[in-house]
Write a structure and sequence with these properties.
By secondary structure, the protein is α+β, with helices and mostly antiparallel strands. It has one domain: Imidazole glycerol phosphate dehydratase, domain 1 (Ribosomal Protein S5, domain 2, 2-Layer Sandwich), CATH 3.30.230.40. It has 4 helices and 10 strands. A hairpin with a 2-residue loop joins β8 and β9. The longest helix is centred in the middle third of the chain and has 20 residues. The model has no long low-confidence stretch (mean pLDDT about 95).
Length: about 200
């Protein structure tokens, strides 16, 4: 398993987004999207997955939805690229993470077959500076572009901020284990011989 780093730039008429990841980092983050709660969630993702993550995202059309979507697409694509052929990884993982009264669970398989099932159970129309639909769309776009199978569910909770943050942290912890090097694994972790 070689270096697991990547940098991806996505430039459109709507946004300019640059993401650099190091899957074997220490959780260092440098996140600048101009959206406070989005920055907070991405910092939590980097910190608890223990990947180094740098994100610079700028809106060209001043439409928040486009910036949130393109940031998620670029992060997911950069991580997918850094995973390479996924040889030598643990592949499967599960994490249950509480945040106060909320509990979120993520099950992950880093097979290269994109599928996700997402249930954040949010009730409010907005959390901090992001609409509910844009928070949901951030998670959807991130999970689609990670190019793997993920089931992420908020089991219960009252506070939508806590639910969303628990969801992000459970994703990060599950990803950290699934993407980690397995000393016993001598190649592609699949009976097919390919991910």
């Amino acid at each position: 398993m070689g270096s697991r780093k990547s940098t991806i730039k996505r430039s459109t008429k709507e946004t300019d987004v640059s993401v650099s990841v190091n899957l074997d980092g220490t959780g260092n983050t440098n996140i600048k999207t101009g959206i406070n709660f989005l920055d907070h969630l991405i910092v939590a993702f980097g910190k608890h997955s223990m990947m180094d993550l740098k994100v610079n995202a700028k809106s060209n059309d001043k439409i928040t939805h486009h910036l949130i979507e393109d940031t998620a697409i670029t992060i997911g694509s950069a991580i997918d690229k850094a995973l390479g052929n996924r040889s030598g990884i643990t592949r499967f993982s599960y994490a249950s993470v509480p945040m106060d009264e909320s509990l979120a669970e993520t099950s992950i398989d880093l097979i290269k077959r994109p599928f996700y099932n997402l249930n954040l159970t949010m009730k409010r129309t907005k959390v901090e500076d992001i609409s509910r639909e844009d928070i949901e769309h951030f998670f959807q776009s991130l999970l689609q572009n990670l190019n793997c199978c993920i089931h992420l569910t908020v089991k219960y909770g009252d506070n939508d901020h806590h639910k969303v943050e628990a969801a992000m942290k459970s994703l990060a912890v599950a990803f950290r284990t699934a993407s980690s090097k397995d000393k016993k694994q001598k190649g592609i972790p699949s009976t097919k011989g390919s991910m």
